[in-house]
């Protein structure tokens, strides 16, 4: 590739999966920098992460839990690549999808790429109400910002670094997804979507998003439609 790729991994209490995720990211042989941001883990993740550090893998620690948005923002602030890709630490998303995610940027036809769970890729069935929440938030996004995307809440978001650095991001929690999307669309960047695979984990496996995050995301979409 003709650009330096940084994969940003926000991480909170993922001692059972973080090593496997890092191995899968490295196996793509596409990554120049992996930046893991530990968001105040309490399950042993913080003891494990320093053992993973090397010339490619860097670790930044939050002293206390501040939320996914805060971890993503820390990742953006510390990344040195030309392109940023966000990777969750829980193995729901498969790094083998990286070539498809990166191709539109590599070919110069997009500055922002989203990996959509709703464009026909293989996926584990979602819970019905989770699907309704995702579809509703995506519909609101399309109405408010005059867009046609299929998966606003996807983790797999890829940006040219200069795009992200032009934003003043404020979110600390899961509302980072609608905030970033709102600011991308308000700047008139067209989001290029590609199908991805998805293996959603169960609640007893540590899924962290809560029912009230839907309402926070909805308010975030409305708020940033009319403010910066």
List keywords for this structure.
228 residues; alpha/beta; Spore Coat Polysaccharide Biosynthesis Protein SpsA, Chain A; 7-stranded mixed beta sheet; 17% strand; globular
Description:
- There is one protein chain.
- With 228 residues, the chain is an alpha/beta fold.
- It has a domain at 5-125 and 154-170 and 185-202: Alpha-Beta Complex (Spore Coat Polysaccharide Biosynthesis Protein SpsA, Chain A), CATH 3.90.550.10.
- The chain has helices spanning 18-27, 45-48, 68-78, 98-106, 128-145, 161-165, 176-186, 213-226, and strands at 5-11, 33-39, 57-62, 83-86, 112-116, 157-160, 191-195.
- Strand 1, helix 1 (18-27) and strand 2 form a beta-alpha-beta unit.
- The mean pLDDT is 93.
Record the strand order, biggest sheet: 3-2-1-4-6-5-7
What CATH architecture label of the domain at 5-125 and 154-170 and 185-202 applies?
Alpha-Beta Complex
> Using DSSP, what is the number of strands?
7
Low-confidence stretches: none
Largest sheet: 7 strands, mixed
Question: Could you name the CATH topology of the domain at 5-125 and 154-170 and 185-202?
Answer: Spore Coat Polysaccharide Biosynthesis Protein SpsA, Chain A
Structural classification: alpha/beta
What percentage of residues falls in helices of 4 or more residues? Answer: 25-40%
Q: What number is the mean pLDDT?
A: 93
Strand content: 15-25%
Radius of gyration: 16 Å
Global morphology: globular
Order of helices and strands: EHEHEHEHEHEHHEH
CATH superfamily annotation of the domain at 5-125 and 154-170 and 185-202: Spore Coat Polysaccharide Biosynthesis Protein SpsA, Chain A
Name of the level-1 CATH class of the domain at 5-125 and 154-170 and 185-202:
Alpha Beta
